[in-house]
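User: Okay, second chain of the day. Same drill as before: sequence in, structure tokens out.
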Amino acid sequence: MAMSQLFSPYQLGSLMLANRIVIAPMCQYSADSGCATDWHTIHLGHLALSGAGLLIIEATAVEPDGRISPFDLGLWSDETEAALGKALDSARRWSDMPIAIQLAHAGRKASVAQPWKGGGQLGLDQGGWTVEGPSELGFETYPRPPRALTRDDIGRLIEAFAESARRAVRLGFAAIELHGAHGYLMHQFLSPFSNRREDEYGGSLENRMRFPLAVLDAVRAVVPAGYPVGFRISGTDWVEGGWDIAQSIAFSAAAKARGADFIDMSGGGLSATQKIPLGPSYQVPLARAVKQATGITTMAVGLITEAEQAEAIIGTGEADLVALARGILYNPRWPWHAAAQLGATVKAPNQYLRSQPRQYSKLFA
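Assistant: Same drill. Structure tokens below.
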């Protein structure tokens, strides 16, 4: 059997990945005032034993008001840093898988309930707070509109991202992903649907890109040389006249020119009127378009569930990395099963070596 491309190594900045499988960020809504809890120890621990090449932890807010819900993870204080460090120490004691972090601000989509409690916007008398956005234009289904950010506010948030990046480096995270997707703050600045500003941060594409690119510059300035930093972006709003793949290509090229190492290509999340053509690999063409146009490292996501499917994405050059989210929650040993199917090897903890099936005698490296 030919060597699996999915299980070939990949160099991301100064970071060498053992294979091309990435665990995408997945919000857990289980933090306590921004601090990681025992749930994060369990969650990160079992994912770190999965055999993937890289684990990116959930959207982590750079300030309290940037949380999606009151139960979101944060990295804005010594307390949140210490709590997250404790969870990371437990995972790292038993796994050498590199762990990255996604830094985020929810903007106008902040202050909502946990998904299993409906996910609606929380009132100010329900533990919610006044939300912020590029404009006073709220998310369609939320009753309370945001306060428009001032230039001083924007400067404060740029520094907040930089400070969280400093903390991330101190905690030993292997890479940083900046969250510019799914209708959250940086995506709100990028899309003409949510950004109605009339200053240098709104209007033209160049202006709408200004804030996210300034965040990238600030983060790059505080991390070591060669340290991987990239963006997760929505390749399209899935709404006619909104953010689209042409603008995504322009943004990715600009980010690459300013030192971004990768683009994690997702889609949607900005408008309740989005019409998403769901199907296997439905967002892979977005990653392919950015990779072909800019040459930047791309991660593909979106209903990638089968080993041969992921192998084909890498083997045909549609993307450099394949990221799984819900699929790996459902099957935390997905990389093991994929390696078995593709004739590859994967790293397993010593405690689990005796679980290797007889028919895959070379599965565990």
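The chain is about 30% helix and 15% strand.

User: Thanks, on to the next one.
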